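Look at a sample.

——
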Amino acid sequence: MITFGLAFALICGFTNAHPVQAAAVSYQTLTYGTTKTSLAAKYYVQPAQVVVNGDDYLVTTTIHTTASLGAWPVTVLSINGVGPANVVKTHDNNDYDYQYAFETKDLSQTINSDIAINVVGVYAAQHTLSFKFDQKQLPSLQKKSPTQTPAKKKIPVTRAPNDQAKQVANLNAANQATQTKVLIGGGLSMVIVAIGAGLWVRRKQPKS
């Protein structure tokens, strides 16, 4: 039989195990190298979720597309110089969500991302986007000296580098199929393929 004291201790133990609270942070999705809002901005869900994870920010964002564009037409190849982490792909009858995360110690800088777009039979290309985050909404990182022990991460960050090579190979095959279909289609599609032709997906080497 659980005594009152033990029950109270158990309850206190659970309530004191504080979950990691995410800050909702607005951000801009920009055409690379400019201050102009990218056409892709409407697919990036606002706000991003930002948490302090050890000594870094862990930023989670979601790309939301409708079924009319096909299954997950946007793939993140790199974000802040490395492959995306904690990727989760979900869908229902009408929508596709591609959630991913990245780490950084500095969100005051512009964050760049390479993405691949493949709308089957219509458009295939690779683009670079830039993101700027609202500084007023960011949680505070604890400042440490170089001699201090790094803080332990509360949220695991998983990144599978081998998946990126497979991803790129699959995208190149899909892009080639799309461009072939567009060429066969002719007319307006020829204009689209002229814009996207030659923009093949290349594997990015992560920063050390």
